[in-house]
Amino acid sequence: MGKKARRNYEGMNNVEDIHARHEHKNNKKLTIHDLKPIKPINEPQKQMFESYFSENFIVANGSAGTGKSFCSIFLALNDVLSKDRPQKKLIIVRSAVPSREIGHLPGTEDEKLEPYEAPYKDIFAELLGRKVAYDKMKKQKIVEFVPTSFIRGLTWDDAVIVVDEVQNMTFYEINSVITRVGANSKLIVIGDQIQTDLYRRKNDQTGIAEFIRVADRMDEFDHVVFTKHDIVRSSFVKSWICALEDSNINF
How far apart are the first and last CA of the chain? Predict the structure, then answer.
């Protein structure tokens, strides 16, 4: 074999080795040691952590960009990835608004839901240090993404259930989700009363206010309120939302 051919062959082996190592890393089972440690950076986040570790259910309500979803996923993974915790699965529930009837959209069921899962892929990548972490855990059935259209008749045992964007659900949908909670499961409900996509649909009305009113009567729930002062996404987003709220503009 000539020198040039040998170099090409050796180079090909190196590429194959890199791919093999990369594949091995991706196939390695994620554990609690892969989870990036984070600390709450505002008072409501601190309240979320304290409530969760006190075994209480959580209603996290308030301004966008305050870290509600990020903290919820971290807290859930902290249990799901721990061997000594009864919760073995993270279930993310979200309404497919503005196109709740996803059957009318083109593509497979997974393709229709992909836009709604994108934020969680980014959160998982940041918390676990791998771009494929969300897809990997979903494939292993450790993580499940469930639109509200498909929950009837289900019972969720031994799970952490994160209900996101609850302002985009009717009270009927919210009630359907809440009544799925089974044994040894935890519940975090996230929303923002001033942001809802349901206004586009004549017969839909957000049920977040009614849900909060019921949850506030229950000892199982802690209600954590986030305001514009707790925004951590960026200084521009904080400035925009502050100006928006001060302008009294209703969506």
Answer: 71
Strand partners for 189: 59, 163
d(CA 143, CA 77): 10
Block mean pLDDT (10 aa), the chain, length 251: 48 48 60 94 96 97 92 97 95 75 58 85 96 95 92 93 94 94 97 71 79 96 94 86 76 56
Task: Please give the model's pTM, rounded to 2 decimal places.
Answer: 0.82
Q: Where are the beta strands (DSSP E) in the chain?
A: 57-62, 89-94, 143-147, 159-163, 186-191, 221-226
Q: What are phi and psi of 161, to 5 degrees?
A: -110, 120
Q: Is 135 exposed, middle or buried (0-12, 13-18, 19+ CB in 10 A)?
A: middle
Q: What is the dihedral of CA 140, 95, 170, 64, to 10 degrees?
A: 100
CB 36, CB 123: distance < 8 Å: no
Closest listed residue to residue 94, CA positions, set 119, 65, 74: 119
In sequence order, what E strands does 30-135 have?
Answer: 57-62, 89-94
